Known about the structure:
heterodimer
Amino acid sequence: MLLFLVTFQYSKAQVSVYGKPGLVSIPTAEWFENKPFGVSYAFVPDAYASNLFRTNLEAPKNRARIVGFRAQFTSFFEVGFNLTQLLEIKDRIGIGDRHMDARFRLLKENNKQPSLVLGVTVPFSQAPVVNHDYIVATKTLGNLKLSLGYGSPYQMQTGDNSNLFRSIKFEAKDSPQGNDYLVGFFGGASYQLSDNLGITAEYNTNTINTGVFYKYDFFIIQLNSFEFKTLSLTLSSHYSLE
Amino acid sequence: MVSFGQYEELLQEGFDQIIEDDKIVYFEHQALRNPLASFKRFNEASEDLPYLQVISYHHMPIMGFINEGTYFSPEKLRLKNDQKQFQIRLQPNIRTRFGYYTDPYEVKLGLILDTRIYLASGFSFIGGLEIPIQNNLDNQSGAIRPAPSMLNFMRKLSPSDYIAFSAGLFFVDRYGFDFEYRHQALFSNFSYGLETSYTGFYRFEGFRYTTRNFSSFSLITDIEYQMPFENLSLRLSAGRWLFEDFGFRLDLTRRFDRTEYGLYAASTEFGSSAGFQFACQLFPGVIAKHKKVLLRTTEEFRYKYSYDSQLPAARRFQKSIPRLADILRNFNK
């Protein structure tokens, strides 16, 4: 019974703006147990969307709308798909950035060890502004969950659009698009106030952000703030499909 | 006998084509993709039936149940269609193309209302009408037109060999002939098959149509391995694809009781391609029911998204009923 309760607690993840297990904008090493499929919708306001995606460019102010899907294939491998639309410059950038990544659970959390997840972006995107490759660990201590991770300053990118699988090269993330999402150490914590309600705080390598989450059945609402300056909303829903 | 009350209850549970013949009860439950879940549900809904139970698909018997843990692969059946109900099925037909700068979301959406008429064992006509809803993908007219409609013949040649032959109109504007063969032994982790088609382009503008000559001959063989965990299968297909490109394709699919999703990567003469697909039953199932008429949403709605480097690589077309591999994969628990 105790084991069941503990496992249940481990499985109570919430998501980042990209719809992956995470806090406000950072991923964590949590894993949706028995909920292999998820969809998400996030709204990131003006300055922070630009902050999140391309600080080095003189981008105009941008509200971002991020739609995400998540699908687990095994108990240690899942795939995420995102569409990030920058609403102010929709006309200029078309559909937005299509992003796909894979998450590998290298360690499963138990009493002794934290869970450990490796996230790798699939190197196909033509506009790799949200590429991120990282490793992150999460440990549950009662109602508290602590996460610490490191995001790579390099990315993999296909150099030849006529064949997605050939000519994949490594490049510094700040080179073509000025992407500094998750470059360096990031971390955060979430605290469960009750069965349904909790709070989060994170450092995403650029800003410190906080949030409140509420879970009801298969539905999670997250109200977040970027540096206590502006609000952001993330909605997600997760299914067992059985 | 399945009493009338039980019959009603079974229908309510989504069971379909319930036919009794010589101490065997045949039924279909295409909403539950997992046959073991179907048997379980069937036995819950109909208590103590002294019958062998067989799941069939379009009157092609696939898997038989004696008791939990004992299954068989029925080969032959004698039965005729005594289902007097006229079924209408709602199915969205969606095609998308994303990413062109001038119009990033190109969507063609229609609602298909079709029906299946069983002409003989394994032999059926599937067809109907399509109501266009939105189209900024191509210039096809918005008038009601015939839906992809075809004659279909499916047969089990042995306990583990299946064929399907179809002639008529298929999805993605193809008309012509399609033949499939698949070998799949019950509970075997390996299966293999062959798909071949000879098709041309057609288009309806309302009820006026244009066709072009037969222009594509495809031949694809594949082998699929069912991994012993997570209901995961890996399928390697190779051959000449719909647009006559030579190459191979690798699909990873995960199945659930009511849905499946998968990823693929392909490499052909046209370059490379990757994407995902999912298939599920559409909510709410049975919409309206009368003794003679049943209106329901489709049991299998499939959507595919492909990201191509250049031309569409490693494509096949869909037919009005799922392909053998997609049907039989579920019977491989």
